[in-house]
Write a structure and sequence with these properties.
The structure holds 2 protein chains of 2 kinds.
Chain A: H1 4-25, E1 27-28, H2 30-33, E2 43-48, H3 54-70, E3 73-78, H4 83-96, E4 100-103, H5 112-120, E5 125-128, E6 142-145, H6 148-166, E7 172-178, H7 184-200, E8 205-212, H8 217-230, E9 236-239, H9 242-254, E10 264-269, H10 272-279, E11 285-288, H11 294-305, E12 313-315, E13 320-322, H12 323-329
Helix pairs in contact in A: 3-11, 6-7, 8-9, 10-12
Chain B: H1 5-11, H2 16-32, E1 40-42, E2 45-47, H3 49-72, H4 80-96, H5 104-131, H6 136-155, E3 159-161, H7 165-172, E4 174-175, E5 178-179, H8 180-198, H9 201-210, H10 212-217, H11 222-248, E6 250-252, H12 260-270, H13 282-302, H14 309-324, H15 326-333, H16 335-338, H17 341-345, H18 357-367
Antiparallel strand pairs in B: 1-2, 3-6, 4-5
Classes of the chains: A alpha/beta, B mainly alpha.
Organism (chain B): Streptomyces resistomycificus
GO molecular function, one term (chain B): transmembrane transporter activity
Transmembrane segments (chain B): 15-34, 46-71, 78-96, 102-124, 136-154, 174-195, 227-244, 256-277, 284-304, 310-326
Chain lengths: 335, 369
């Protein structure tokens, strides 16, 4: 039996701890841009997924810098990979009555309720980087971000080149390291890759194993170690991000094989560590997914605020890199 | 009908069911990966599924061993995942600032700094629980939530990649053809078992978990014991943090040790330690942690579709927990397997018979505040 006093202490403790967490995560960078004239500044509420990778931090920095340059008040919160955190952040932006809400959804589904609340308060919502599935298309104005399906297609296309360059003949056994289950980049990169594979290489390419590595190095390493046990004859690794690829490289090396030679590796993102690995010959090709979308986002936010119509999907500018371009491109990588 | 006394004693040993589950899980892999049990030499070290399981499972074993003692005192430590992240972040950021990242003295100093931070976290938890009388789940929740933020602050939200040969040894290197982490785990487990079973310490821990107030009245410094177990738990988590960051040669403040506290608690429970406190089994915890790691590896090797990973994991955990329950066994397999619930606990000293556990365990709950 729990006595009442204990229960009370516990309840107060929980309240205090969550309050503490909320305070720690809210980061109001308005002070840095204050004093720029009398006109009322545009207030942007931005909820970031988390800071799970170098890519994400670059994305965060880009948004913060661009907001500062545009002279907006940015209310920033980090959802630490949890949808419930993100929903409560968006709710608090609605309560505060910000001008525009932008966020990178942690997962694809489950946003209807909170987006309807925003719509009821007439606060436009801009998605960045990832899309959502919703029953009502009017719940968000636009998406500023990459076309993940196309990244998957590009990965398959560049794999053709990689195979040709390596002189690989015959059937290709592919291992796939997926991103976080349910996340848009994971679903769509897999979809795009499979699309090209089914269309052009139905006979010779085959995905023999596919499993989530949660977009992390540790995940990539552990899953790849298991793959190498169950399927020792893997020819190609397709990793949904560089970090999982880097983890997998370590697992491949521990198994006594040469990454980039015995197993050809194609990854998506293009973070600095990925380029370093590619310049060392351990990754064969990288499909870029550009995180520096801050300036594009601010442009859209201004347009949305002014009531202009914008395209439903504003795609970020991206390119692909083969191994021979790695050394030249490395110094220019910002993230 | 063929039940011999020896078989009966075996099935009633407190480690029987965890070990049985571990063996069953390992065997499931064989049809999918025929050479699952084969171990070969690669680049001067042993390589194979079993080696991988122990290598990747080492941090979990360490965290779970620390957690066992905390749980034995009737507490719980939710902050271990955050401590893992803080330790890795501090150590790697110190190493990455060095001109020569492979200098042994710098690496040792960096590890010392990381472990010191872990101990400070443990002292804080122990202080809140023992001195302030805050419920353990709340007291440790503070560092669980705030600690990951601290780790991200240290790493500046980035993944810090380091290139240090000596540091790589502890979590990803090999010694005498075996993963070095095995030796670290073996040492920690051996020291823990020696301290708790060869001295009176284990008995004191169990006595505090059984009834903290009664223990104090008979002259046991129960506050001191409590602080000690939280510090020990944090230290174990700190070593695990070194291993995890060393394994990938990178500190990831956001993901390192994420949810490891839940896996650790699960490992402790699978190992037969009661969450009510008052008795514990280090051996059971080690087996429990291996069960969880084997389960993870099994999911990867037998090709469970990504979307059903967690369902598969949950199903296995439910089966394990049911098998652990004497009442369930009595119902399903008949009295032969189930009746030994009292004897099951006798493998550990100071165990209370199962039917009296609720009453003794309710007692400490009453006087914590």
């Amino acid at each position: 039996m729990l006595n009442r006093r204990n229960f009370l202490t516990a309840a107060v403790g929980v309240a205090a701890a969550t309050g503490l967490a909320a305070c720690a995560k809210e980061d109001d960078s308005s002070s840095s841009t204050s004093g720029s004239g009398g006109s009322k500044k545009l207030v942007l509420g931005f909820s970031q997924v988390g800071s799970e990778s170098g890519w994400r931090s670059a994305n965060t920095d880009s948004v913060k810098e661009a907001a500062k340059e545009a002279g907006y008040t940015l209310k920033f919160s980090d959802a630490q990979q949890k949808q419930e955190n993100q929903i409560s952040a968006i709710r608090s932006y609605i309560t505060q009555g910000v001008d525009v809400i932008a966020f990178s959804p942690v997962v694809v589904t489950g946003w209807d309720a909170v987006l309807k609340e925003a719509k009821a308060k007439k606060i436009p919502v801009v998605l960045t980087d990832r899309s959502v599935e919703t029953s009502d298309e009017s719940l968000f104005v636009t998406l500023v971000g990459s076309d993940f399906t196309d990244e998957g297609r590009r990965a398959a296309k560049i794999l053709e080149k990689v195979l040709e360059k390596a002189g690989h003949k015959g059937p290709v056994k592919i291992a796939q390291l997926e991103g976080t289950t349910g996340a848009a980049p994971a679903i769509e990169r897999a979809k795009g890759f499979k699309e090209v594979m089914d269309a052009d290489h139905a006979d010779d390419w085959k995905i023999v194993v596919s499993q989530t590595g949660d977009f992390t190095r540790a995940g990539g390493k552990q899953v790849m170690a298991a793959f190498l046990q169950s399927n020792p004859d893997i020819d190609v690794l397709f990793a949904h991000n560089d970090d999982m690829g880097i983890g997998a490289i370590q697992a491949i090396e521990a198994a006594g094989k040469k990454p980039g030679k015995d197993i050809l590796i194609v990854t998506v993102d293009g973070v600095k560590d990925g380029f370093i690995a590619m310049s060392e010959g351990k990754i064969n090709a990288i499909v870029e997914c550009n995180p520096l979308l801050g300036p594009q986002l601010m442009e859209v936010v201004q347009k949305v605020k002014d009531g202009e119509t914008v395209e439903r999907w504003i795609k970020t500018k991206e390119s692909d890199f083969m191994q021979d371009q790695a050394k030249a491109a490395l110094p220019t990588r910002k993230y | 009908m063929t039940t011999t006394p020896r078989w009966r004693a075996l099935t009633q040993h407190h480690l029987f069911w965890p070990v049985a589950v571990l063996v069953a899980l390992l065997l499931i892999n064989v049809p999918f990966t025929p050479d699952f049990f084969s171990i070969r030499m690669t680049d001067g070290h042993l390589y194979g599924s079993l080696v991988s399981i122990v290598l990747f499972g080492s941090p979990l074993i360490l965290v779970a061993v620390g957690m066992t003692l905390v749980i034995a005192t009737g507490g719980i430590d939710l902050s271990v995942g955050a401590v893992v992240a803080i330790t890795g972040a501090l150590t790697c950021s110190y190493i990455s600032d060095q001109a020569d990242q492979s200098a042994l003295s710098a690496v040792l100093l960096a590890m010392g700094i990381g472990l010191l931070a872990a101990v400070v976290c443990g002292l804080w938890n122990g202080f809140l629980v023992a001195r302030m009388g805050i419920q353990p789940i709340i007291a440790t929740l503070i560092i669980m939530v705030a600690g990951r933020g601290v780790a991200q602050l240290i790493t500046d939200g980035q993944i810090i990649t380091i290139n240090s040969e000596p540091y790589k040894l502890i979590g990803g290197g090999y010694w005498l053809t075996l993963p070095f982490s095995i030796f670290v785990v073996a040492a920690v487990v051996a020291v823990t078992v020696a301290l708790t079973r060869r001295t009176a310490l284990g008995l004191l821990v169990e006595s505090v978990g059984g009834n903290a107030e009664a223990s104090r009245l008979v002259g046991i410094r129960s506050l001191r014991i409590k602080i000690m177990v939280y510090v020990f738990c944090a230290l174990c988590a700190g070593i695990a943090g070194l291993m995890i960051s060393s394994n990938t040669s990178a500190a990831d403040g956001n993901n390192a040790g994420l949810w490891i506290e839940l896996d650790a608690i699960l490992a402790v429970v699978i190992g037969g330690t009661s969450l009510l406190g008052g008795r514990f089994s280090i051996g059971g915890t080690v087996v429990g942690a291996l069960v969880i790691q084997t389960l993870t590896t099994t999911i990867y090797t037998i090709g469970v579709p990504t979307q059903t990973n967690l369902v598969f994991k949950a199903a296995v955990v439910i089966v394990v927990c049911l098998l652990q329950s004497p009442k369930f066994r009595a119902k399903v397999f008949g009295a032969r397997f189930g009746s030994g619930s009292g004897a099951k606990g006798s493998g550990t000293p100071a165990a209370t018979p199962a039917d009296t556990t609720p009453t003794t365990a309710a007692a400490p709950k009453m006087e914590v505040s």
